[in-house]
């Protein structure tokens, strides 16, 4: 085997091969398989003239290292992007993507189903700098054209929606946005580029919370922002102006996770769908929010645009008192309660979007639960949940 990949052969490889080989060149690492962690601030220049002209591949720790280059190169190849930057969290990746696209006096359209901290960033930070945000119905599709103003510079999409899992018609929204020369920014954390290739579908700037499936182990914080050729110069400049570079150890761990991400995602998706179907059959469940289920209102779009599902979905329970939900969740043996997701372990949290929706009303008809299905034996997960439902019914006075 040649230690040096042939750059011309890259295109013909499938996604699994790309995950294994992207951003890796053992011939530059003395034959070692992985690019190591470069820790460093100062980079020495050999001569006065080199320093004055900032000559050399690396010039300072925040401007890039072999570790950050390896991750960025790998992600750009996997996402089909012109360039990628790595940030210390998913939220930082989102904020940098937004800052690269909008300026004072601009108008921004954000889906009402966006990740809550994205809303807070728009409502509090962008507002202070003179950017006005309007929230829109996630199901708007091509109808977004009616909300576009002369100063609408960017449209933020997220599919499926955070907590509520509505599917968005991203290509239709992108077409309408591009007709007015607005930038399309997407939070693509749920699908990753393996299940939804963002730039191929019209997204200009795509964000991935690497904290989730790149890690796969609930052990790191990282964000990736990628851009197409049109927006890459602005994104790269903004990133360096804010200097929000990710830590070298987290970047190394993200690359380690990347190599097995396809395999893990497939299993999270398969087990998640099995649990989702099982939950559909439970009498305590009113509705399952999972776009890969044929009964889901977003199923047709999911089927058209997505190559699969990850392991995160929601459930609406039939109305029960809050103490019944607490009794169910408190006694779970395998499902943990906590924020974030994407690790090997299953999680379950309650959610309620009613207090912060502004463009649409969230009235699902019962309490909401969000599940992340991990890599445990699926029968053990069902047993854990079945016992939880028994506690729920007892606490509700049902049995
Ligand atoms: C977790 C998450 C983020 C933010 O990632 P952090 O690394 O926790 O900042 C952004 N978007 C979505 C959809 C997420 O689930």
TrEMBL record:
<keyword id="KW-0663">Pyridoxal phosphate</keyword>
<protein>
    <submittedName>
        <fullName>Cystathionine beta-lyase</fullName>
        <ecNumber>4.4.1.13</ecNumber>
    </submittedName>
</protein>
<dbReference type="InterPro" id="IPR015422">
    <property type="entry name" value="PyrdxlP-dep_Trfase_small"/>
</dbReference>
<feature type="region of interest" description="Disordered">
    <location>
        <begin position="1"/>
        <end position="32"/>
    </location>
</feature>
<dbReference type="GO" id="GO:0047804">
    <property type="term" value="F:cysteine-S-conjugate beta-lyase activity"/>
</dbReference>
<comment type="similarity">
    <text>Belongs to the trans-sulfuration enzymes family.</text>
</comment>
<dbReference type="InterPro" id="IPR006233">
    <property type="entry name" value="Cys_b_lyase_bac"/>
</dbReference>
<dbReference type="Pfam" id="PF01053">
    <property type="entry name" value="Cys_Met_Meta_PP"/>
</dbReference>
<dbReference type="InterPro" id="IPR015421">
    <property type="entry name" value="PyrdxlP-dep_Trfase_major"/>
</dbReference>
<dbReference type="InterPro" id="IPR000277">
    <property type="entry name" value="Cys/Met-Metab_PyrdxlP-dep_enz"/>
</dbReference>
<keyword id="KW-0456">Lyase</keyword>
<dbReference type="InterPro" id="IPR015424">
    <property type="entry name" value="PyrdxlP-dep_Trfase"/>
</dbReference>
């Amino acid at each position: 085997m040649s230690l040096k990949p042939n750059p011309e052969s890259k295109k013909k490889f499938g996604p699994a091969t790309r995950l294994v080989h992207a951003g890796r060149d053992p011939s530059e690492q003395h034959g070692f398989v992985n690019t190591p962690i470069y820790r460093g601030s100062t980079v020495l220049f050999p001569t006065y003239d080199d320093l004055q002209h900032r000559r050399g591949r690396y010039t300072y720790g925040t401007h890039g290292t072999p570790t950050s280059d390896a991750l960025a190169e790998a992600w750009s190849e996997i996402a089909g992007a012109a360039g990628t930057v790595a940030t210390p969290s998913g939220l930082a990746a989102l904020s940098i993507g937004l800052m690269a696209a909008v300026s004072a006096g601009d108008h921004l359209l954000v889906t009402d189903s966006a990740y809550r901290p994205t809303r807070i960033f728009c409502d509090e930070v962008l507002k202070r700098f003179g950017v006005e945000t309007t929230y829109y119905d996630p199901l708007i599709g091509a109808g977004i054209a009616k909300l576009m103003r002369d100063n609408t510079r960017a449209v933020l999409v997220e599919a499926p929606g955070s907590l509520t899992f509505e599917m968005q018609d991203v290509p239709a929204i992108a077409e309408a946005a591009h007709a007015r020369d607005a930038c399309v920014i997407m939070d693509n954390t749920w699908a990753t580029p393996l299940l939804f290739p963002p730039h191929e579908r019209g997204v200009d700037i795509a964000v991935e919370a690497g904290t989730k499936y790149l890690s796969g182990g609930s052990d790191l914080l990282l964000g990736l922002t990628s851009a197409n050729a049109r927006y890459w110069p602005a994104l790269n400049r903004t990133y360096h102006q804010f200097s929000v570079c990710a830590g070298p150890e987290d970047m190394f761990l993200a690359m380690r996770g990347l190599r097995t991400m396809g395999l893990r995602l497939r299993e999270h998706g398969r087990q998640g769908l099995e649990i989702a179907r099982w939950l559909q059959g439970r009498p305590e469940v009113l509705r399952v929010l999972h776009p890969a289920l044929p009964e889901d209102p977003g199923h047709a779009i999911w089927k058209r645009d997505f190559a699969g599902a990850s392991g995160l979905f929601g459930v609406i329970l039939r109305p029960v008192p809050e103490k019944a939900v607490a009794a169910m969740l408190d006694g779970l043996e395998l499902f943990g309660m906590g924020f974030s997701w994407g690790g090997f372990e299953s999680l379950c949290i309650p959610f309620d979007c009613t207090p912060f929706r502004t463009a649409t009303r969230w009235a699902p008809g019962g309490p909401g639960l969000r599940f992340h299905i991990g890599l445990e034996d699926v029968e053990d997960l069902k047993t854990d949940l079945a016992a939880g439902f028994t506690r729920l019914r007892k606490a509700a006075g049902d049995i």
